[in-house]
Amino acid sequence: MKRFTAQIVIRVLGITMIVILALNGCAKKAPEKIDFLLDWKAQSYFAAYYVAQEKGFYKKENLSVNILAGKGAETTAKLVGTGKYPLGSCSAPATVIARSRGVPVISVAVLYQQSPSVIFSLKENGIKEPKDLLGKTLGVRYYDISHQEYKAMMKNNRLDIGKVNEVSVGWELQPLLTGQIDALYSYVYSQPVQARLMGKEVNVIPMSKWGVETYGSNLIANEDFARNNPDIVKRFLRASLRAWEYVINHPEETIEIFHRLHPETDKKLGLEMLKETIPLLTSEVTQKYGIGYQLEERWEETQNTLFEQKVVDKKVKVDEIFTNEYLR
User: pTM of the predicted model, to two decimals?
Assistant: First the structure.
């Protein structure tokens, strides 16, 4: 009898252990918390990351992502490089600049398949292509990467930049609207959109269509963090790029989500900015490989442009700048 009882106890204990182990295996691991630093304050062209939160895309990847406002792409690159933040939204030029200075960041996905930089003017000024700038007054920001892209555009089209009258301006539209300048450079989703919403007809010259083959916005990671936490980077990219795909197909819903989270923003302006952002995300390359995919030759061109304009004083190996290994 005692032997029979002992066998029962052993069996019960065995079954209990199996159940405990099974429950432990099924127990959901707590979401991994991660900080993600933008390169500017919250704007609709960052809306995909908020969509990823609200739609549960990050949650599905067992991530809890804290989205933080930034203070410029170069600053974001530096902070991600120091390890203060593991992941960030940056720009391709800022990434190249950081790598040339030994900052350990790496591009893990490219979002804008071309530069968003444009020259824009009021339609009445008759500036439709780069050569029309000759003899005109252009509003410039010498500190802006767009200035280097403008110089590259003029050089690529064999136009004498000395024949353009340059006037230093800020981000206000007033100098253009009052005739102090004939044109200025900006981003396709920024000031040109504001001018249109004011009822102005504008001409836009995309620098990417006139020989400037640089990448635009991208996602970066601290090199050590990516190397030591490849699964987190993969899951973050999977959720973020899924959100960008959702944004492309649902811009109006995207703005509703973004505006609900950021009621201080202008909903109409946000939607129009987003509509100008969406075309930057796709190309023949993304149609073949998916959003975020990067080409070595495009990174080479981005670096060459910055080197030729003396933004960087040395080149680095392109495989130190980007990798596709964390995609999908």
Answer: 0.89
